[in-house]
Amino acid sequence: MWLLVKNHTFAKSDIFWIKYLTLWCLLIPSLLIQGIAEAGSSCLTEGCRNGGTCITHKNGVSTCNCNSKYVGDFCEYQNPCLTGPGRCQNGGTCQVSYRNESLGITCICPLGFAESLCEIKLPNACDSSPCQYGGTCNLKTLDDYTCACVNGFTGKHCDTKNICATSPCHNGGTCTSIPGVRNYKCICPAGFSGQTCSDDVEECNNNPCKHGGTCVNTHGSYQCMCPAGYTGKRY
Questions:
Q1: Taking the model in full, what pTM does it have?
Q2: Which is it for the CA torsion 133, 138, 139, 140, positive or negative?
Q3: What are phi and psi of 228, to 5 degrees?
Q4: Check whether domain 83-122 has CATH 3.40.50.2000, yes or no
Q5: At residue 2, what are phi and psi to the nearest 5 degrees?
Q6: pLDDT tens per residue, range 152-204
Q7: How many Å apart are CA 121 and CA 33, to the nearest integer?
Q8: Which Pfam family, just one, is annotated for this protein (predicted)?
Q9: What CATH number does the domain located at 202-234 have?
């Protein structure tokens, strides 16, 4: 059967497509209006929720700056890193993620841990506890490490006693370890002597003051009391 529409004939089977296209012609304007409205929505018109602050950037785009407890375009969601059922373990860093139009978390795991919440410990070089005398093992890779030694010890495994760690040299002396004998040597500044630079040098024994000046010993040095007509450290 054929239908006559404004002097044009259409097959009856084409009526479905005519109705389909007509429906789209009616829907497209409303969809465009809705899209424009959504694209134009910003915190300037919608406002930021839960204490968020609306900030307009140099490119003219306005976004919400949310506090740490909330996330979302308008700070409308509670931060799942703080309120969700799962927590990143073993020092993992929590980041908010979106999956299937819902909020979730992604854990960035430190070296040596894995799985969604960093709950699985991976076999690594620190498992054998290579650092001695209280040293802390820090992974460089799963197969390599460094030891952070406590005061008084040094070496790759903190197995060498650092005899200078107790600062045995006094009065600004510099401590130097003597290899192989587990001992040290102090390099003393001027005015001090002895194994630990504790002895004050008696400079007045060398009569440093000239022209009858009187030498007075001081801590680490000396002073000349000059007679009339003379001045200076020694004259």
A1: 0.49
A2: negative
A3: -60, 135
A4: no
A5: -115, 145
A6: 888 899 988 888 888 899 999 999 887 766 788 999 998 899 999 999 999 89
A7: 53
A8: EGF
A9: 2.10.25.10
